[in-house]
Structure formats: C-alpha cells, structure tokens
C-alpha cells in the first residue's frame, strides 16, 4: 500500500512458478530469465594416471588441504595460492582419500589403506589420535570419505558399506542407517557430504558412467551420469563433480525431487574432489593443486515470454497505474511489457499453464492460482510497450535502502491498457547466447492517479482523450506522489537504523558527529544510535572501549597502567629499543610499553607515579592490519583525555609474556579472533610432518611450565 494506492506484487518464487513460461526459467537467485541449456562439451577427458577420488577441505583461516592418495600425503595450500603439483617423495599416510575439517578445527583424514581415520589438531599442528574403523568381526572394513556433521564427523566405510560417527574423543559410533536408493543396483557408495543434519551419499559404478545421489536413508534420489564427488553449499544447493574436464552440475531441492540450476565451468578438473570454500565459492582439485569455478557453463535461448496470472484491482473499470520492474538488463538484452485488461469475472478457454524450462516446478496450492488470460484475448493482445524507463532515483518505495552491490535496477512503464478490474502482464525477454536479462520482481499500482478527475470533464469525456490525459500526467503525478509518500514517512530519517545511507551523515551532523567513511556502514549507524549515551561518559575508559568495540567487533580492552602497580613478575625482555619479550602462541606485536618492561617493577630513576600516571594501553586481541590500525589510532586520539599517553598493542595471535599477560585483566583464554600458526611455504601432512607419532602437548594438570594447571 502506497498511501491511498494499493499495489499488486509478483516477486516470490511460488508466484513466478504459477505464471506461464515460454522458453524462460526460474533463476537460482530469484526471479526469471531466459531458458538455458548446458554448453556443448567434448568427450570427457580420461583420468590422468594416478588420479582418482581424492580429498579437499578448508579450515577457518582459508587454508586448503588436498590429498594425494597414491603418494600417501596431504598438501596444505596457503590462501591465495593453488599449489604446484610437483612430485615429492612418498608420504607416511596409506591411501588418504577423504578429508574434512570440523567446527573445532580438527582435520580428519580417511586413510583408506590403513583402515583408520587420523585426527589432527590444526591449532597445535599435531596428531591427536588415530581411530581404527576395523574390528574383530569386520577385519576388512576401511574408510572411504569423511564429512563434518554438526558436532560430529561422519565416516563412510565399506566392507560392509555403512556410516560411523566420531564425536570428540568418542568413536567410532554407529551412525545413520545407509539404505540403497532406487536405481542404484550394481552401484556402491563412494562419497559423502553433510548439510543441515542430513547426509548425502554418491553411489557410483566401478567403471564410472551411471551414478546416483541420494540421502543416506535412500530418499530424494538423483541420477547424475559420470559423477565423481559432491558437496552442498550453505543455502542447500547440491554441487556434483563429474568426469575430468566437465562442468560441475548444480541442483536445488524442489519438494521431494531436485531442480537443476546453472552448471559451473571447472577448467582443469581432474575428477578428484569438489568442495565449498569458506567464502561460498566452489573449489575443485586439479593436476596443479586446486582451482575455483569460472562462471556458468550455459547457452541461453534468444527470446522468451512470461505471462502472469490474473491480478485483481477489486473494482470494475479500474484504470491501472504504473508498472515497476526490478531487473538486470545487460547491454545486448531487452525486456518489454504488455498488458491485457477485462471486466469479465469468468475466463473462457484460458491458456494452459506451462512450467518453467528450468528451476523449481512444484506449485503450492495450485487450485487457488488465478486464471491465465483466454486464448482469444491473448491472440488479440497489443504489441509490447516501448523500452522501459530506468529510474535514476532507484526504487519508488519511500526511503528504500538499496545495497550498493545490488546489480538490479528499477524500471518503470505506464500500464497502457483500457480500464478493467482484471489485469494480465506479459514480459518479453530477449538476450544473447551468453547473456540473459533477469527480472527479480514487479509491482503495479491499482488504481493509477486521479488527476483527470480534477480537470474539466470535457477533457476526459472521450475514452481516447482520457487515456492520453492519464499517460500525459503520469510522470508529474508520480513525482508528486513519491514526495508525498516520503513526507508521510519522514520520521524514518531520524532513526539511525532505518535512515537511508545518504542521509546518515546529515543525521550525525544533528548530533555533532563527523562520521569516518572508513567505518563499516553498520558500525556508523550504531555509533549514531549510541551517541548521546557515549557523550555522557566521554573521556572515560568505558566510553573509549565501547567506541572501539563498535568499530572492531572484538573484545578490545583499555588498561590503565596504574592498575599494574604491585603486580609481580620477571624481566623477560631487554630495555627500550631491544628485542621484544617472548610470545605465547604467536608473534603478538606491540608498539607500546606493555610487554617490554618488568612486570610490577620500575626502571632505574623512576617511581610508581611517573611510570604509570596518565598512561594507558589499548589491547586488541587480533591483528587488525595497517588500515584498521590507522582508524583505531584516529579514534583514540579523538576520544582520549588530552593529558594522557597511550600505547596501542595488537596482541595478534597470542598472549605476550610480560605486562600484557595478567589473568582477568589483559589475557584471553581460548582461540583468538585471528589466531593461526605461521606457515612458511607449504606443509605436507604425512611428508614434512610426522603422522602416526603423537606429539606431546600441554593438558590441564600436566604442564611443565608452572606445574599442575587447575581451572576454577
């Protein structure tokens, strides 16, 4: 509802499915576009010698782990690199196939030849345990693949086929029952993937060819020829790798079935493994290590049509208003709109419903779908309208906030049709084999403006004159109507969480704030929302901490040096300008006094007052980087008392032994926000590291530094 004007909306995927589709498809991101077919592909490349099922996984730091089963090793690939694939001496692992990293950042390696799963702690880079899956009654059982499943890790085993679970230090435990899906006769389970508590299993034959993907209980089967591996994205899309050199096919759940969405190019894929990286991109193994997908591998039809179902204005002889279309229309493509109206309540001989060529096809409550236009009315339809007008001001919705990364723009067109209670909208899409226009949603005003009623009746007595006057006055009336709508909702401008981005600086100016453009938009809005509360405590430790935590979503601490007086400790570093004090857990750099001097002591010639008065340190439990560190310095200089001296200490990956290590004051027990061991070059688990000989580690009660450790 826009003021006194109602709006008909067509935007939900279920609404688009109810329309009649002619050479069009539902898009994975929502809306409609031209139908597509997979690009013609050459015959699948034969698998290189020594290649086959492999493992690929990512940890929270973006490092990739890629297994080489025949070489007996796992290669660790640093972020931003792809590996080199150079042959190396054999590792110590026995046919490592599947890889998985759980939520606790433990790498699980399915050593198929050894009949065991190796669990490696990625925080300490050491082997935690080796879990055999064989037993006295199943001496030939071996693991094929592993996947993270909520708080556990599911292991696909064979001889006999089944699923076992590893939970912390427990396992193997009996997992979900593995049932053979329909159409999988003669196939065996080879790969497994988990998503939202459900396990999906790939069943393949010994020589490739026919393959079936299904849930572990055998439901929702899907036939994908030449499938080699599978994984699921965060939003539930199924990605299936196929033969070497072939694109990756993608599917989305459609009721109890699957609907295919656009496949992805996978140049160089060797048929080994497919997975989703922490950024949501699809990665796959190659002869040189790993790579990411390179866009859709599709060819679009040249033109298509979407015929909407009947929209009801509620009153007869309604003159419809403007059509607003949220669409992405690249160069070389076009979208035109046509309209049909009637006052007849019944639709004789309606057009039959036709599902989209691609995408979901199931309709919820199909019996309640309004009818499509009649064949006779559709045959006499007028030609499509002139090109749509792109609105330079964006959405027509008052004070609508548009994401800067949104590639869709709003287009406008008048409903060029006689008055009528019912309206059908027809969209004609044209594109190229490589590019399609995309329509995400549409809105249409009902009724249109009423300015002709305020003019002399003789001007609109004739139907043709009334239609011309309606179209002629529409642009000016539309601008006035949008101004009135914005004025009616002007209170939104005073709310920092709802005000448009372009008005945020103006709102901050009313409060006496000058916003820093380097801040994230959400942090700027929150700063304006808390401005008065912060002004009341300005100049205090609490105020500075709250502002810093608004900018950095981290537990930033401000420590006044006088609080450290009397705390005992040892001199661990040299004097000023010398080497820094040692660090625990990583290179925690600091630019201030914390960590350089004696804990609880003073330098010659100093007393407790001169060493600690009017001095404080800002402790950041992460490595913010040079850009964010500059912003932190600007914040501190603007909000600290003028007579104080400050040190900014990025703690980085660990806690520094010295003044920055005081339990309850400056220390953080547990993993930091950016903790990660430094890696020089690449590390190969099973070759450069020792796998099979557990490394000694510190446990609660067994540390050699301070004796027994007790928590609580």
How would you portray this structure in words?
By secondary structure, the protein is α+β, with helices and mostly antiparallel strands. The protein folds into three domains: about 5-35 and about 300-450, Jelly Rolls (Sandwich), CATH 2.60.120; about 40-45 and about 55-300, Neuraminidase (6 Propeller); about 535-685, no CATH class. The protein is built from nine helices and 42 strands. The strands form twelve sheets. Strands 1-36-31-34-33 form a five-stranded antiparallel β-sheet, with no helix packed on it. Helix 7 packs antiparallel against helix 9 (about 625-640). It starts with 5 loop residues before the first strand and ends in a 27-residue tail after the last strand.
Summarize the structure.
By secondary structure, the chain is an alpha+beta fold. The protein has three domains: 6-35 and 301-448, Jelly Rolls; 38-44 and 56-300, 6 Propeller (Neuraminidase), CATH 2.120.10; 537-685, no CATH class. Helices cover 13% and strands 30% of the residues.
Summarize this structure as a short list of keywords or feature phrases.
single chain, 712 residues, alpha+beta, Jelly Rolls, Neuraminidase, 3 domains, five-stranded antiparallel beta sheet, 42 strands, 30% strand, disordered C terminus
**What gross morphology would you assign?**
flat
CATH top level of the largest domain? Mainly Beta
Order of neighbouring strands in the sheet with most strands = 1-36-31-34-33
The portion of residues forming beta strands comes to: 25-35%
CATH architecture of the largest domain: 6 Propeller
Radius of gyration: 33 Å
Low-confidence residue ranges: 567-576, 579-601, 668-683, 685-712
